[in-house]
Design a protein that fits this description.
two-stranded antiparallel sheet; Endonuclease III, domain 1; 8 strands; DNA damage; about 280 residues; about 15% strand; 14 helices
Amino acid sequence: MQILEVAEGVILSRPDSFNMNQIITSGQCFRWDEIRTNVWKGVAFDTLLEIELLDDNSYLFKCTKETFYSLWYDYFDFERDYEQIKRSVSGDSFLEKAVVVGDGIRILRQDPFEMLITFIISQCSNIPKIKTNVNILCQKLGAYVEDKHGKDGYYLFPTPKALAENPELIASCGVGYRDKYIVNAARKVLTGELNLDHLRTVSREEAFDALISLYGVGRKVANCVLLFGLQHLDGFPIDLWIKKVLDKHYQGLFDTSRYNGYRGVIQQYMFYYGRTLGASYFE
């Protein structure tokens, strides 16, 4: 991958395993949108970014070089060798196809509190509805930031304090029965009873136990938070699509030990390919 600073921002040429459409439709993030053909806009860590595909494999990140390296390089996990991970599936016919179809997927390194609340919202839902609920939550309870270039501003993700102190507003965001879970989780984080930064430093098992002890957080939500918010890449969330894949191609049994250290990356290839095949494939 080559990185070049230009007047408009930073150009990435030939980045391995990087496809914005695949990343933002892989079920791991819900605050990115394709605002026009081959142009995406999103907010992460209170920062707005616009990315444009310039040609077949060059992307313009509309930010300074300093911001790219201090935030976005880590956020998009550019340090990790995803090509090596894809080679590791050799001999598994389903995964060999999955890593081709989802060739540009990366695991985003996202804010753990945002991931906790987002995946609580995700229970028994779907990607479009999750995006809608999260955006409403941000609009009603997040701070508004004026765009410094005079364009439309944007909303930050609500703080633990904002969510802990406004249960009525949360209930008006269309999250249904999950409102109680959101308030409880926010209060645990606000008081320090749940230290998400600390959970990044402990074992996956210890972090999992802490998350699953929360009211309304089950195994799937806990594994999503581990994977997308705490960078425990052995988190392996099992939702409807993963269950369909495991039942059809692995008789319900999938030995993840072969992929120790990056099980969650394999899960993302499975999830993305499964959704691409569609429900009728699994009937």
